[in-house]
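Retro notes (design track)

What went well: tokenization of the new backbones is finally stable.
What didn't: we kept losing track of which sequence belonged to which structure.
Fix going forward: every design gets posted as structure first, then sequence, in one message. First example under the new rule, 321 residues:
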């Protein structure tokens, strides 16, 4: 199968990045959105992604390319600044936004679901999508924590459904975790691995279903630990971030990461983790039970209600120009 037409369902932080990266690599890409309001929120995200690519390309062509290289944009041995800039322009010009789901997925080779990180929203989306999809279409979820086997029955294509999870800042952190569910056709798994490589990702096979996949199985407990310190008034976000960045040399602390991925995503994860004990191994459950999930929920909900949604809105735990 030759994947050419890509549909990304959802224009959030990662949805916008996935769509732009696929378009940058020459694929025919459409983002499906629920409403005119979604369009008005997605366009600034795409503009921000474009700006990030342009800034990255400038750094890659500068005096210190090794420390500024973005593997999702180009290889070092055949780098052409002109070609990269042309790819950015082509992505910006050719990306399509569509409100009509049937029109969006017509003739789609692959649909990448990137809707809100909760089971109810994903189930509702799959139920709406199932009767509209062409028989050939591969369906993947970009879920960061939910298992594909939770949804395979409602997708209407168990053999062509699996997970394809991306890291944030896709042009730089170019990993793609690929996880099948028990009914996924191995040939479809291989097609998704091939597609991930075609959009300049490093394909990381996940050999058995695991909530959190590879990256988030390590990242989420770290983020919850930082948030727990704050909601229990042990310290403030800036100090907690500095404890981590200055103490380990990491580029970002937990609250800086929360602002990048978005407060709504953080809220969804907190709600999911406190309500579904089956997400955890016995050891991890024991580690997380003392966490003040109710306090986390209250803090994040207040931020959402106030419009402090993270870096994309100009303010989260920090303020941005």
């Amino acid at each position: 199968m030759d994947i050419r037409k890509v549909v990304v369902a959802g224009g959030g932080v990662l949805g916008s990045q996935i769509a732009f990266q696929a378009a940058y690599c020459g694929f025919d890409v459409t983002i499906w959105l629920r409403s005119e309001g979604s369009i008005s929120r997605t366009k600034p995200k795409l503009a921000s992604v474009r700006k990030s690519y342009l800034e990255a390309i400038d750094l890659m062509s500068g005096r210190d390319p090794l420390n500024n290289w973005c593997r999702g944009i180009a290889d070092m041995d055949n780098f052409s600044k002109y070609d990269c800039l042309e790819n950015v322009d082509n992505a910006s010009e050719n990306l399509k936004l569509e409100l009509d789901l049937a029109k969006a997925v017509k003739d789609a080779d692959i649909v990448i679901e990137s809707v809100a990180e909760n089971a109810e929203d994903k189930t509702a989306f799959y139920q709406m999508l199932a009767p509209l999809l062409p028989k050939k279409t591969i369906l993947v979820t970009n879920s960061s924590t939910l298992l594909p086997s939770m949804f395979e029955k409602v997708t209407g294509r168990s053999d062509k459904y699996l997970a394809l999870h991306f890291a944030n800042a896709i042009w730089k952190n170019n990993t793609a975790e690929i996880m099948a569910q028990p009914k996924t056709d191995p040939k479809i798994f291989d097609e998704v691995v091939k597609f991930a490589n075609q959009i300049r990702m490093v394909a990381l096979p996940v050999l058995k279903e695991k909530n959190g996949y590879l990256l988030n199985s390590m990242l989420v407990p770290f983020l919850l630990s930082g948030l727990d310190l704050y909601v229990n008034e042990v310290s403030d976000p800036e100090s907690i971030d500095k404890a981590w960045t200055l103490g380990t040399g990491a580029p970002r602390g937990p609250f800086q990461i929360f602002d990048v991925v978005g407060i709504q995503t953080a809220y969804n994860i907190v709600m999911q983790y406190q309500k579904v004990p089956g997400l955890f191994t016995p050891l991890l459950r024991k580690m997380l039970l003392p966490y003040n999930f109710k306090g986390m929920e209250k803090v994040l909900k207040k931020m959402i209600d106030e419009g402090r949604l993270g870096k994309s809105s100009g303010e989260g735990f920090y303020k941005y120009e």
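Added context from the reviewer: The beta strands are 5-9, 28-32, 96-98, 110-113, 138-141, 161-166, 175-180, 202-206.
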